[in-house]
From TrEMBL, chain A:
Protein name, UniProt field: Response regulator
Keywords of this entry: DNA-binding, Phosphoprotein, Transcription, Transcription regulation
Cross-referenced PROSITE patterns: HTH_LUXR_1, HTH_LUXR_2, RESPONSE_REGULATORY
SMART domains for the chain: HTH_LUXR (SM00421), REC (SM00448)
PANTHER family: DNA-BINDING TRANSCRIPTIONAL ACTIVATOR DEVR_DOSR
Matches recorded under InterPro entries: CheY-like_superfamily, Sig_transdc_resp-reg_C-effctor, Sig_transdc_resp-reg_receiver, Tscrpt_reg_LuxR_C, WH-like_DNA-bd_sf
Domain of life: Bacteria
Location of the HTH luxR-type domain: 129-194
Residues bearing PTM 4-aspartylphosphate: D54
Originating organism: Novosphingobium beihaiensis
Record flagged with keyword Cell wall biogenesis/degradation: no
Ranges of residues in domain Response regulatory: 5-120
From TrEMBL, chain B:
Name this protein carries in UniProt: Sensor histidine kinase
This protein's UniProt keywords: Kinase, Membrane, Transferase, Transmembrane, Transmembrane helix
Keyword match Transcription: no
Highest taxon, organism lineage: Bacteria
One annotated GO molecular function: kinase activity
Organism for this UniProt entry: Novosphingobium beihaiensis
Length: 195, 529
């Protein structure tokens, strides 16, 4: 059940519409955009899970758009496409701008679909983690991060230079807020799993 | 390393008579005898003849067949002299006379071998054909004449032994006679035998050139006659000038005909009853004319050959340049095609799926469109792999070269827009590590926009160092209308920026009042960042 929207951003409106329709035929919700600003404006109102973005677009290119997007919502997956592929760009797209894939035009349909599907699943996990941990205090978040990496109460107390007793309290609060039952479920949650 | 035995074997093999040489030697002996006899009217005291065509035959054979035939020509000539009775078959001087008879062929072989050897080693204007032939044609008679000195010292029985006036006259007379013979007879023989330095495919002389050369020759001869009538004697200077002019203008063939004309005019006169001293003097003049004319013709032909070689190299360079341009263009075309093709391929695939159940003619059409779109997509991917980053590896590239290449590629647009491209000279030490084709493309795209937008038909490109970067600026003036803000970047500009960023650089726009200026910065090579 993919309720999240996939935004297709390309200054070539025909191609944007075509890719959006292709995704819709696969049962995904998709919408085409021509301008990067339109997508950024739509972020709060639409639940966007994945964005397929062209790299060479007018004044704001795909990478500048990626930075603007990350600042607003880090849980949206990004897939880049380009008609002018370079090795340097491919590396940058994935490393620096958190792109899931870098597609050359003409687009390979199967690869596009798998990238978008993967992107939506990644976004879903990020949102679930964000949702579950949004109620944490700063200290609870620190304890949670260490806990799910397998550290004991004693180790966490040493690392954060607080008493083991305080760690116990934070841990109880974490369990209460996430309504989980035990460490295993906490770890599953930290990975964005489906329980 | 060769042992002495090996060397001996090679030498023997080299000098050995081949079966194919035998008829040649027979004909040679006959022709040599005839030409030798024909030279008699120009004889004098101390030398055989001042006009010795047999030397030309000897030289032509040696030049064409190689110096290895020298010993066999020596033998042939000796036999001819013995048969005709020119040299004694008995008496106390048989051996010295025989050595004297073999001297010319030996000297000619040595001269030909020497010039060939020098040509194979050296480079320069003198080794460019047909200069070696020209040089050998002069060196052989001179060398043959010089060999008279040691032989004369061995002959105490002859009058005027040692360095004496008669010896000088003998040397001069010999050299002059041989030289005239070689330069008049050898060239046509070599041309007809198809030797290496024939001016192949030589264009037929144009009538205008023929008439001009004839007129010049005639004028100079008239001048000679005028000087003669004035009591100044037969002066060679006018003919030297005419020969030099004709040779330099029209090459060896024209030079040879000029030589032939001179010789045909003067030899009948000198064959007549003139004194030995006068004859020698006249022939010295003729020799000067012939030598200058021949060398001028050879030099002109060598220049022509060098120019042809240069033209050929330039054509190859031009082709390589065009190929580079073509590849840069194909990269741009691939980009332009791949955008709409993306749409086409996806829609075609969809159409095929949706029409599969419809009547066959529709379904087949849709399937065909889909298949062709796929083929085209695959082609674009393959072309990109071929002409893209792999084929254009980054290399150290001087910025000045980049600007020049871009300037060449822009030539057609500049002409079309009557636009002037000002390439501000850049420091030669600005070097970037770049994919040449792509970076050139980026620059060309920027300049194209500038050419199209320029209000005063001028576009300026400059490159300056800025810290550890080079800043290439493309600027043009625009009309006073406000710049179209937000009109978006053209696809060319987008590509230029992509390329700049792929090279670790930037593309920015810094306009002034009525000036549009794009700055492409790139990291300089060899600077740690």
């Amino acid at each position: 059940m993919n309720t999240a929207l996939t935004a297709v951003l390309d200054d070539d409106e025909d191609l944007g519409q075509t890719v959006a329709r292709l995704l819709m035929r696969q049962g995904l919700a998709a919408k085409a955009f021509v301008a990067p600003d339109d997508v950024l404006d739509a972020l709060p109102s639409l639940s966007i899970g994945c964005i397929v973005s062209d790299i060479q677009m007018g004044e704001m290119d795909g990478f500048a758009f990626a930075d603007a997007l990350r600042a607003r919502d880090p849980a949206v997956a990004l897939v880049f496409m380009t008609a002018w592929p370079t090795t340097a760009h491919a590396v940058d797209a994935v490393r620096r701008h958190g792109g899931l894939d870098y597609l050359e035009k003409p687009i390979d349909e199967a690869r596009l679909l798998s990238a978008v599907t993967e992107g939506l699943a990644w976004s879903r996990r990020q949102r679930r983690i964000a949702g579950a941990t949004s109620a944490f205090t700063r200290r609870e978040r620190e304890v949670f991060e260490l806990l799910v990496r397998g550290h004991s109460n004693k180790e966490i107390a040493d690392l954060l230079t607080i008493s083991p007793r305080t760690v116990e309290d934070h841990r109880a609060a974490i369990v209460a807020k996430t309504r989980t039952n035990g460490l295993a479920q906490l770890i599953a949650l930290s990975r964005g799993g489906d329980d | 390393m060769m042992t002495a035995q090996d060397k001996n074997a090679v030498l023997q093999q080299g000098l050995a008579l081949r079966l194919s040489d035998v008829p040649l030697l027979g004909i040679y002996a006959l022709a040599f005898g005839l030409l030798h006899w024909a030279a008699q009217p120009w004889g004098g005291a101390g030398f055989f003849s001042l006009w010795y065509p047999a030397a030309g035959l000897r030289f032509a054979v040696l030049w064409q067949r190689g110096a290895r035939l020298a010993p066999w020509l020596m033998a042939s000539e000796l036999c001819v002299h013995w048969i005709t009775g020119a040299l004694p078959l008995s008496g106390p001087n048989v051996l010295p006379e025989a050595i004297g008879g073999m001297r010319p062929a030996f000297a000619y072989g040595l001269a030909v071998a020497g010039v060939r050897w020098l040509t194979n080693r050296g480079t320069g204007a003198l080794t460019m054909p047909p200069m070696p032939l020209g040089l050998a044609a002069l060196a052989a008679p001179v060398l043959a004449a010089l060999f008279i000195i040691p032989l004369a010292l061995l002959r105490p029985d002859l009058p005027g032994t040692g360095i004496h006036v008669s010896l000088v006259i003998s040397l001069t007379g010999f050299a002059v006679g041989d030289m005239l013979g070689v330069l008049v007879v050898a060239p046509p023989l070599l041309w007809f035998s198809g030797s290496g330095s024939v001016p192949r495919n030589a264009p037929l002389p144009r009538p205008a050139a023929l008439i001009a050369d004839g007129a010049i020759l005639m004028a100079c001869l008239l001048l000679t006659v005028a000087l003669w009538r004035a009591g100044l004697g037969l002066q060679p200077i006018p003919s030297v000038l005419a020969g030099a002019w004709i040779g330099l203008r029209h090459g060896r063939i024209a030079a040879w005909f000029a030589i032939l004309a001179e010789v045909a005019l003067f030899l009948p006169y000198t064959a007549g009853p003139v004194g030995d001293a006068t004859r020698l003097e006249l022939h010295l003049g003729i020799a000067a004319v012939v030598i200058v004319t021949w060398l001028a013709g050879s030099f002109a032909d060598a220049q022509e050959a060098a120019r042809t070689a240069l033209d050929k190299r330039n054509r190859l360079l031009f082709q390589a340049e065009r190929l580079k341009t073509l590849r840069a263009m194909s990269v741009a075309v691939i980009h332009e095609i791949s955008q709409p093709l993306s749409t086409l391929a996806i829609e075609a695939s969809h159409l095929k799926d949706r029409t599969a159940a419809l009547p066959p003619d529709i379904a087949e059409s849709a399937a065909l469109i889909d298949r062709k779109a796929r083929t085209l997509s695959e082609l674009v991917r393959r072309l990109r792999r071929f002409g893209g980053r792999n084929a254009d590896a980054p290399s150290a590239l001087p910025v000045t070269m980049l600007l020049q290449t871009a300037g060449q590629m822009l030539a057609p647009e500049l002409r079309e827009h009557a636009c002037l491209l000002q390439l501000v000279p850049a420091p030669p030490d600005l070097i970037v590590t770049a994919q040449e084709i792509e970076l050139t493309q980026a620059l060309v795209n920027l300049a194209r926009n500038a050419i199209a937008a320029s209000a005063d038909h001028r576009v300026q490109i400059s490159a300056t160092a800025a810290g550890d970067e080079v800043r290439i600026e493309v600027s043009n003036r625009i009309a006073n209308t406000p710049p179209q803000e937000g009109a978006g970047m053209g696809v060319g500009l987008i590509i230029a920026r992509t390329i700049a960023e792929a090279h670790g650089g930037t593309l920015t726009r810094n306009d002034e009042a009525d000036l549009v200026r794009f700055a492409l910065t790139l990291p300089l090579a060899g600077v740690e960042t």
